[in-house]
């Protein structure tokens, strides 16, 4: 007979936020069942940062998160900060380093962050089950939920949804969390791929794809948002950290502007009386020759600096400081790092991550409409929101 098994808390999804929530519930002595659809936990933690896992950032700020409710993330980020996670990493003696812009990476590719989380789950009342399919969820009464699965029927007081977003479908991402929200009448904000390469229209692609592999320092702008990082030309379009960052803000049909030469102000070249160095050789210290030859006229590139005229400066300013590109789209969930949109923050308590209309039902991590910048911000959101739910579930 299919016996009903009881737990205080059931968490669906053994990724970053689900593991964090399990640890915190376990610390409070709550019996936890952590259910994972695939055969292993935390697969994105293992592949993150090229295997080195950019687990947080020194400069976590609520302004580094996108959401239709920009205040929502503040409470969780304050209750469990980057310093709290760094302390945990130190406690486990995991060597790490700051790569750039406050981004913290492990020194080795040994999966230490996942190991830390699994170690923390030990000696706590946490059961982890893999290869589980949840086929149905019903609310039996206030603060009592029942889950039907291929391994049995389970009941709990608190149900935490930590199923993540839709990126890298080959890793088993599912829309389950969004569907569950809808089943319970909770709004889901429109979903799209974020931190993702941008693709180009045919003409631009034809012109730029021979430059594939070229990377340069840039400031990429969309409306009021701007990122100063590297831009990379690929055979499909544009990538690199600056482009991934702006992709989360970019709207289809709109243009982005790239300052390909943020290191200097091109107008200072006017009136350089003594230099007979050609423009091409001068600019080549910042940008590859092939890039210059594709974007500027040959006769302008061959002009000596002391022969540059006002109209040349204006042409250079447009071509290099205000390189305007209208992307065709994004590469989509296949290569994206995050899913924008998700469970509507207005339907959740920012203090606890609990659904306002359903006591005992919590949503955490990427499934919620909170998306961080590139650089450890998304894991910090997973740790912070998981921690918070773990105090109340
Ligand atoms: C290639 C890549 C690199 C990244 N690198 C970084 C980085 O360096 N730094 C950073 O901050 N962020 C990075 N991210 C983003 C980061 O991985 C996510 O934001 C974070 O993992 C979200 O945590 P989560 O717990 O919400 O979801 P996940 O970690 O994705 O966990 C969700 C879990 O739920 C399981 N699941 C899904 N559906 C079901 C279901 N129906 N039943 C049971 N289980 C289910 C999944 O199998 C998974 O184990 C990267 C993402 C990708 C794709």
Heteromolecules bound: flavin-adenine dinucleotide
Please state the overall shape, judged from the principal axes of the Cα atoms. elongated
Mean pLDDT score, rounded? Answer: 96
CATH H level, superfamily name of the largest domain: FAD/NAD(P)-binding domain
In total, how many beta strands?
Answer: 21
- In the CATH hierarchy, the architecture of the largest domain is 3-Layer(bba) Sandwich
Derived from helix and strand composition plus strand pairing, the structural class reads alpha+beta
In CATH, the topology of the largest domain is named FAD/NAD(P)-binding domain
Low-confidence stretches: none
> What's the gyration radius in Å?
25 Å
Domain tally: 2
Approximately what portion of the residues adopt beta-strand conformation? 25-35%
What's the tally of helices?
13
Q: Helix proportion of residues, in percent? A: 25-40%
Q: How can the largest sheet be summarized?
A: 7 strands, mixed
Gap between N and C termini, in Å?
29 Å
């Amino acid at each position: 007979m299919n016996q009903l098994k009881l737990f205080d808390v059931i968490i669906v999804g053994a990724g970053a936020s689900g593991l964090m929530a399990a640890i915190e519930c376990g610390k409070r002595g709550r019996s936890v069942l952590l259910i994972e659809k695939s055969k292993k936990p935390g697969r994105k933690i293992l592949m993150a940062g090229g295997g080195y896992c950019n687990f947080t950032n020194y400069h976590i700020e609520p302004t580094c998160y996108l959401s239709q409710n920009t205040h929502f993330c503040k409470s969780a980020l304050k209750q469990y900060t980057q310093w709290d996670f760094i302390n945990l990493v130190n406690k486990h003696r995991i060597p790490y380093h700051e790569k750039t812009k406050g981004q913290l990476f492990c020194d080795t590719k040994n999966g230490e962050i996942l190991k830390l989380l699994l170690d923390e789950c030990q000696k706590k009342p946490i059961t982890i089950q893999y290869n589980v399919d949840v086929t149905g969820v019903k609310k039996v009464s206030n603060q009592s939920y029942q889950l039907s699965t291929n391994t049995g029927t389970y009941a709990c007081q608190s149900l935490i949804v930590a199923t993540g977003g839709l990126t890298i479908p080959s890793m088993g991402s599912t829309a389950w969390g969004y569907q569950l929200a809808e089943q319970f009448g909770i709004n889901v904000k429109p979903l799209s791929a974020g931190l993702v390469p941008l693709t180009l229209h045919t003409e631009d692609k034809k012109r730029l794809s021979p430059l594939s592999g070229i990377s340069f320092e840039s400031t990429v702008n969309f409306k009021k948002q701007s990122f100063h990082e590297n831009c990379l030309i690929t055979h499909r379009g544009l990538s690199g950290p600056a482009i991934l960052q702006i992709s989360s803000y970019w709207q289809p049909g709109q243009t982005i502007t790239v300052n390909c030469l943020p290191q200097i102000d091109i107008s200072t070249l006017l009136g350089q009386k003594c230099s007979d160095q050609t423009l091409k050789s001068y600019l080549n210290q910042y940008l590859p020759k092939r890039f210059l030859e594709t974007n500027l006229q040959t006769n302008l590139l061959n002009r000596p600096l002391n022969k540059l005229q006002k109209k040349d400066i204006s042409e250079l300013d447009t071509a290099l400081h205000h390189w305007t590109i209208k992307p065709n789209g994004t590469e989509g969930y296949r290569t994206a790092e995050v899913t924008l949109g998700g469970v509507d923050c207005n339907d959740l308590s920012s203090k606890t991550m609990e659904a306002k209309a359903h006591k005992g039902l919590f949503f955490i991590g990427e499934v919620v409409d909170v998306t961080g910048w590139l650089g450890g911000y998304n894991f910090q959101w997973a740790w912070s929101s998981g921690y918070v739910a773990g105090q109340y579930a």
